[in-house]
Amino acid sequence: MSLSHDCKSPPRSRRPLLHNAGNPLLIDVRATRGRQADVIAQLEQLMAANRDRPVHMPEICAATGVSERTLRLFCKKHLGMAPVRYLWLRRMQLARAALMRADPATATVTDIATGHGFWELGRFSVAYRTLFGESPSESLRRPLSDPA
Fold this sequence. Notes:
By secondary structure, the chain is an all-alpha fold. 57% of the residues lie in helices and 0% in strands.
């Protein structure tokens, strides 16, 4: 018997660990990528439908039909962050857009912040300044033509 590889299959070191095509543990990578994209799309829809309030993990999991662990993995892979962080950042963006569109004579930072689900106004203001480099009231007072 020769030590060279006469058979057509690759040497063991080059085979995938789960080599058996009939193995139920093998996952179709293309189907997984499609599922991940579907879950992220559902997350986007959930965000659009709930712009004015925080959405918590159990609700997100129920809406997307995946476990918390799976949701975290998909979001980390596609968005680079946890789903709750992503939703929070989206709400901050929406609050900023609302502040910049609002009429400072009739709108208040409090109304806009609470309208986007931010109830701790001091924390909102600090986080807003950290993200956008200005206070919410500065954004509210900024003329529409000044994009910053």
